[in-house]
Design goal:
about 425 residues, mainly alpha, disordered C terminus
């Protein structure tokens, strides 16, 4: 087997990745179907789609710190089974409401929030569980393969959803069947988790109940300049640079005078570049913070260049390169945070990482949107890229001035892990 796919030699990871791939395809199917359903119920209201998306992501901002504590307190395998049930339930309810023709837009809003709440507890557990399944040397590979699976689903899921909705008549009932299908796909990760060999999991000792655990997680990150650097980088890029859906839509329609087909192709091109970035990340053994910083700077510069693209073709050709740079930064940041965090803190650290990474979007999107309205569509990319570069440079300068600019490599991580071996207690399959 190719070194790029070496984590698949691990039977636990192979089961887990297969279940996640099925579920991710369903998730992308529901994203398309849910948006189409909202448009049908509100006479094409873009604001209603924005409200739905906001309600689905709001729980991540509100609950992530507490979700991280739960991820460190409860066996992640059991927690992930519960969160998958929690995500399946609102999908099945919404699908049934749509199929029976009784759905109303407020149903979508409420169920999107419920789905987001379950996702808020799922994300830190899912991110940190990877390190319990694979050996330390394979962690970067496993994170890259997870991202590759997500991007394969990102290509397949919307296509399957669009075709299915069209074949079923294109109405509310058609979207309901697609959403129901997503609800059923959650059975795949639930069954995969049940079949894992618990004796092969490298699970840390669970954190005991007690006050101040959220604060302890924040204090831990504050004491680590290397982790703060990564958080600052992903905040800068996530807040100002990663607004592809809005910026590419504006470029396609306002600058290049193209229709929905050409706009859709831009997303496909971006996804292929993201997939390539994921596979490259899977072949990487070690991750240094300089990789994350470098990829973020390249991404910001490429975004500025994209804003200056003279034609639709040039812009389309830049999209996969942008996707590759963005995924290199994101997979590198994810891997670095996991590889260089104490096992007992990993759930809380990954929860803070996700909150910082995704939490900047509600702040940055209106700013970039205002820039587009006042200065034109090209400036959404130029300004977004420039602010990404500026944020990364400032964060790097502050990090260097702290005097803690040592390079944290994987060999050092292994040595520290050996010194902390008492923190690890493999769990049985019945735990």
């Amino acid at each position: 087997m190719s070194p790029t796919f070496r984590s698949l030699h691990n039977p636990n990871y192979r089961l887990y990745a297969g279940g996640n791939l099925v579920s991710n395809v369903g998730t992308w199917m529901q994203r398309v179907a849910q948006d189409w359903l909202v448009l049908l119920l509100t006479a094409n209201s873009a604001a209603a789609i924005g409200i739905t998306t906001g309600l689905q992501f709001l729980p991540i901002l509100l609950l992530s710190p507490f979700a991280g504590v739960i991820a460190d307190r409860i066996p992640k395998r059991r927690l992930l089974q519960l969160t998958n049930v929690g995500m399946a339930a609102p999908a099945l309810v919404l699908g049934l409401l749509a199929v029976t023709g009784t759905v109303q837009v407020w149903h979508v809003y409420v169920l999107a929030f419920v789905l987001g709440a379950a996702s808020a507890f799922d994300a830190p557990a899912r991110q940190s569980f990877v390190s319990e399944m694979v050996d330390p040397d394979d962690l970067s590979n496993a994170v890259g393969l997870n991202s590759a699976g997500f991007n394969v689903a990102r290509i397949v899921g919307p296509a399957v959803a669009g075709l299915s909705i069209a074949l079923l008549g294109g109405g509310v009932v058609a979207t309901g069947w697609v959403i129901l299908a997503n609800g059923l796909t959650y059975a795949a990760p639930i069954l995969a988790l049940a079949r894992l060999d618990g004796s092969r999991l490298h699970s840390p000792a669970l954190v005991a109940r007690g006050p101040g655990q959220v604060v302890a997680g924040i204090s831990y990150v504050r004491s680590r300049p290397d982790l703060l650097l990564i958080l600052a980088v992903v905040f800068s890029a996530g807040t100002f640079g990663l607004n592809f859906q809005m910026t590419s839509a504006l470029m396609a329609t306002e600058v290049f005078d193209k229709g929905p087909t050409e706009y859709g192709l831009l997303g496909t091109f971006m996804a292929f570049g993201s997939l390539a970035g994921s596979l490259l990340a899977a072949g990487r053994v070690r991750v240094r913070h300089r990789l994350v910083v470098g990829a973020a700077l390249v991404f910001g510069v490429l975004e500025i260049v994209s804003g200056l693209a003279p034609s639709y073709l040039t812009f389309a050709l830049l999209c996969p390169v942008l996707g590759l740079a963005a995924l290199t930064m994101m997979t590198g940041a994810n891997t670095f945070m996991q590889m260089n965090t104490d096992a007992g803190m990993r759930g809380r650290v990954m929860a803070l990482y996700l909150m910082v990474f995704m939490g900047g979007t509600p702040l940055g999107a209106p700013i970039i949107g205002w820039v587009g309205e006042v200065f034109g569509a090209r400036w959404t990319l130029i300004a977004g890229g420039a602010m990404t570069v500026a944020g990364v440079l400032v964060a790097s300068a502050v990090y260097l001035r702290t005097g803690h600019h040592h390079v944290v490599v994987w060999e050092g991580r292994r040595a520290r892990a050996a010194a902390r071996s008492q923190d690890f207690a493999p769990v049985s399959s019945g735990r």
